[in-house]
Amino acid sequence: MISLFNSVNEFTEYRNSLATDSIGLVPTMGNLHDGHLSLIKKSISENQYTIVTIFVNPLQFGPNEDFDKYPRTLTADVEKIKSLKIEGKEIIVLAPSSVNEIFPKNFKTTISVKDLTNTLCGASRPDHFDGVTTIVYRLFALAKASKSYFGQKDYQQVLVIRRMVEDLLIPTEVIALPINREESGLARSSRNQFLSESGRVEALELSGTILKISRLLKEKSFQEAGIEINDILEVVLRDQRWDYLEVLDAENLEAVNINTQQVVIAGALKIEETRLIDNHLTKISYAR
Amino acid sequence: MISLFNSVNEFTEYRNSLATDSIGLVPTMGNLHDGHLSLIKKSISENQYTIVTIFVNPLQFGPNEDFDKYPRTLTADVEKIKSLKIEGKEIIVLAPSSVNEIFPKNFKTTISVKDLTNTLCGASRPDHFDGVTTIVYRLFALAKASKSYFGQKDYQQVLVIRRMVEDLLIPTEVIALPINREESGLARSSRNQFLSESGRVEALELSGTILKISRLLKEKSFQEAGIEINDILEVVLRDQRWDYLEVLDAENLEAVNINTQQVVIAGALKIEETRLIDNHLTKISYAR
């Protein structure tokens, strides 16, 4: 069964009538693709109720970013959810009819996570993560779900949300699922549809470069792979299309050091005005 | 009955074992005076359990403020609580043994409330209210109290906390109690003890000036009282000892306007290195 709410008050009333803890939350900005659907499927398999929120959150877009252009496809999204095997479980879609439904006019609170948000996407999108943590907190508080599902494509976002959940003692388990990729290797994203045919080919440079670094780190110690990796990073640094490409400690996004066990190789590449991100986790050996 | 916890984990375990909603929270920085005790008494009268937290929160002190000097008197505080009529109710004192108990080393989250924090104390203490909202959120999350008690002396703080509670959907009722004053009229504060005998007399200028403005506003319309009030404010503005003295809309701390029904007259005055604050609420008539 699927129910759709456009009113936060009506949603809240319904949510509070549910006398169960078996509730999963999948927060999305809509325009659902197979990546989102894999999160929803996982939640259906693990919970009696799955709450899917569909809300393009203005707080996480910068002034010159693509908030207005971001694809809004609610009818198609609901159809995609309906096509899933629901098998006696229940799906609740919360698609607020306006920004004021989620952030009332006199809303004045911001939640920020420091350090983790200074690097990668945080470096080039200054208020982005404050917007993310503030909306996700609000969705957590509305949904009161015991489990919450996020895609690993937004790796930094997952770390930031985990930090917030721990710091603010929010009673939900954050579950991150692997990146869902097209056959070409391109990470699925609602923004991929902005790419031309040739753009889709050019975009493979993102996953390709990340994988190349990952292979080097699997073959050699971090120090031995360093020279070749630096060559790759230097080329990227001179290339205006790349916003960043970094190899960081996967736990805290700090520089790799003797205690690092796993790195995240994360990049952002702009193709035809569309900014794409991708990442890959790799265990490393750090020669002493 | 009184129980004392220095460990947040042990407190949490005990709190989670309580199967009741009849819980009041009184967050304090210790060095309890009659103002604090009036909050605790009110909570005892309204709840089966009263949680009193005693924690000098470093986040709300600026680099040149009196964090180190702030009086810490735990033994005397517990004695004062013990001397109250508890009558079958239960008091739980949470006095964390270290800052890390409340803010673990990897804690990275800040909660901020905008607009309301730009004026009065917020103007001269830039990160003060972020420190307040962050600690108070954390205490709310640990205590899970249905009611929380604050003193009206920190009027701006109460407004900021109310805003946070609403924005973050925190399930506690914020109750603010009137300022507790010494016989002289001086608002009770843990900082009063830093004053010399002559300082205590000089300090009466704070409550006295605020009351003078309040009386003018009771006698005349806001516009008619305006000239005399401006004369008072001008004198204060030239006096280095005054940090601020303002007459603002009591609901939103904005400039008084045609919709204002009540004002807060709030001041901060430095006497012998000790910064004192005070305020008074007054209903106004606004001639049209």
Protein described:
Two copies of one chain form a homodimer. By secondary structure, chain A is of the alpha/beta class. The first copy, chain A, has two domains: 176 residues, Rossmann fold; 94 residues, 2-Layer Sandwich (Pantoate--beta-alanine Ligase, Chain: A,domain 2), CATH 3.30.1300.10. Chain A has ten helices and ten strands. In chain A, the strands form two sheets. Chain A has a six-stranded parallel sheet, with helices on both faces. In chain A, helix 6 packs across helix 7 and helix 9 packs antiparallel against helix 10. The longest helix of chain A has 16 residues. At the A-B interface, strand 5, helix 6 and helix 7 of A face strand 5, helix 6 and helix 7 of B. Strand 5 of chain A pairs antiparallel with strand 5 of chain B.
CATH superfamily of the largest domain in chain A: HUPs
- What's the number of domains of chain A? 2
Instruction: Determine the number of helices of chain A (DSSP H or I, runs of at least 4 residues).
Output: 10
**What topology, given as strand order, has the largest sheet of chain A?**
1-4-3-2-6-7
Mean pLDDT of chain A: 97
The total strand number of chain A stands at: 10
Give the N-terminus to C-terminus distance of chain A in angstroms.
Answer: 57 Å
Broad shape of chain A: globular
What fraction, in percent, of the residue positions of chain A are helical?
Answer: 25-40%
CATH topology of the largest domain in chain A: Rossmann fold
Main interface: chain pair and counts: A-B, 21 and 21 residues
Helix-strand pattern of chain A: EHEHEHEHEHHEHEHHHEEE
Radius of gyration of chain A: 20 Å
CATH architecture of the largest domain in chain A: 3-Layer(aba) Sandwich
Catalytic activity (chains A, B): (R)-pantoate + beta-alanine + ATP = (R)-pantothenate + AMP + diphosphate + H(+)
Pathway (chains A, B): Cofactor biosynthesis; (R)-pantothenate biosynthesis; (R)-pantothenate from (R)-pantoate and beta-alanine: step 1/1
Pfam families (chains A, B): Pantoate_ligase
EC number (chains A, B): 6.3.2.1
